[in-house]
Amino acid sequence: MKIGIPAEIKDRESRVACTPGGVRMLVQPGHEVFVEAGAGEGSGFSDAAYVAAGAQILPRAADVFAQAELILKVKEPQPAEYALLRKDQMLFTYLHLAAEPRLAAVLARQGVIALAYETVQVGNRLPLLEPMSEIAGRMSVIVGSYLLGKSQGGKGVLLGGVPGVLPGKVLVLGGGTAGVNAGRMAMGLGADVTILEVDLEKMRFLDITLQSAAHTLFSNEANLIEALPSVDLLIGAVLIPGARAPRLIRRDMMRQVKSGSVFVDIAIDQGGCAETSRPTSHSHPVYEIDGVLHYCVTNMPAAYARTATQALTNVTIPYALQLANLGWRQACRQVVELQSGLNVCEGQVVHPTVANALSGHKTVGPGGEEESPAT
Questions:
Q1: CATH class of 130-303
Q2: CA within 20 to 30 Å of 55's CA: 68, 70, 192, 304, which one?
Q3: What are phi and psi of 292, to 5 degrees?
Q4: How far apart are CA 303 and CA 142, in angstroms?
């Protein structure tokens, strides 16, 4: 099979879908791999390294898309790439279609076979989302602690405190992979950490694994409202696989957070978990509402591109091989978790949760007409 790896064009997206080592694994069974020139540079992988692994370098994204039967990407196709996609071409990437109704409509209209990393599910695990959630969770504390600095517009609180001064308070919404990693990083800095979660078994697990160094609190509106006035760093890490993130924080609730505090919304790529959340980029990452600094970058792990690319390739390459070896139909029959990864197929949004999230959405087509994703 012909496999294409284009350069990512989202704002400051420096990751690439596959390392040279991963390319070597794809080439060994006889597949052809086409890499856009410079695609790996942001992650520290040269064109020469890809050539040595057996890939062919093509000068433009259009050339890669034209050659490939299977496209491997990191982030969802951007508007400039829509016209490059074609009928029956497989696309394997992060899609987050619940927050991207226009893209869902494009994929359906153009007959793309779209599989999303973030909905590939093994039991209760999302193995292709986990490494990016780990990075985003840890990064949320790094970014948040920096933005708390007075020079950045924050309230001037050092999360770890110093002898004689209490540490800052961190509130994490969600005890999944991102939330746990945020909590661990904040604990490492010496912060006072509370994790809100609805799953009692998960709270017991957190209590044991975090050795009671972080507090767990049942997630409901009353507890959240009570906790918000004292928080220094608020981290949104809630997730419903395939669905839009639940908006747990209303605008009036956010007003209870003290001026100079920081809110990092990891859930923004699924629409965000606060009424005040809106997508931002690495070029313009922060905005302020009611005195609270909001960091809502939709591709946070791109900041640590080399680590993220290596971690992503580790988990995606076995599935990419199955798609290349068997084709999408047979691969989805033989590899059960790939069935949950299938989001758009033959003009329809086929993932039930994604379809439900998109129901009722209308978008404007290229000719100005209204269209909705077929579900």
A1: alpha beta
A2: 304
A3: -95, 125
A4: 11
b/e string for 278-309 if b means 16 or more Cβ within 10 A? eebebeebbeebeebbbbbbbbbbbbbbbebb
Spatial CA neighbour of 239 closest among 98, 108, 45 = 98
Is 269 an active-site residue?
yes
Beta strand extents in the chain (DSSP E only): 2-5, 32-36, 56-58, 70-72, 90-93, 113-116, 169-173, 192-197, 215-218, 233-236, 262-265, 286-289, 292-295, 342-345, 348-349, 363-364, 370-371
Quickly name the fold that domain 2-126+305-371 has.
Rossmann fold (3.40.50)
pLDDT tens digit sequence for 112-139: 999 999 999 999 899 999 999 999 999 9
The whole-chain average pLDDT of the chain stands at 94
CB 192 within 8 A of CB 165: no
Query: What is the rounded average pLDDT of the residues 256-285?
Result: 97
Q: Give the 3-state secondary structure of residue 45.
A: coil
Kindly state the helix (H) or strand (E) to which residue 19 belongs, with its residue range: none
Q: How confident is the model at residue 182 (pLDDT cuts 50, 70, 90)?
A: very high
> Widest CA span of the chain, in angstroms?
65
Q: Say what percent of the chain tops pLDDT 90.
A: 89
Q: Could you tell me where in the chain the CATH 3.40.50.720 domains are found?
A: 2-126+305-371, 130-303
- For 154-170, write each residue's pLDDT tens digit: 999 999 999 999 999 99
What is the pLDDT, as a whole number, of residue 364? 39
CA angle at 100 for the pair 97 and 101, rounded to the nearest 5°: 95
Give the SS3 label for residue 5.
strand
Helix (H, G, I), strand (E, B) or coil at 172: strand
Residue 369 has pLDDT above 60, yes or no: no
pLDDT for residue 295 is more than 90: yes
What DSSP string runs through 94-163? ---GGG-HHHHHHHHHTT-EEEEGGG--BTTB-TTTHHHHHHHHHHHHHHHHHHTSGGGTS----TT-BT
Residue 141, exposed/middle/buried by CB under 10 A (0-12, 13-18, 19+)? buried
How many C-beta neighbours within 10 Å does residue 46 have? Answer: 12
Query: Catalytic: which of 96, 232, 294, 351?
Result: 96
Instruction: Tell me which residue has tokens 């809630």.
Output: 238
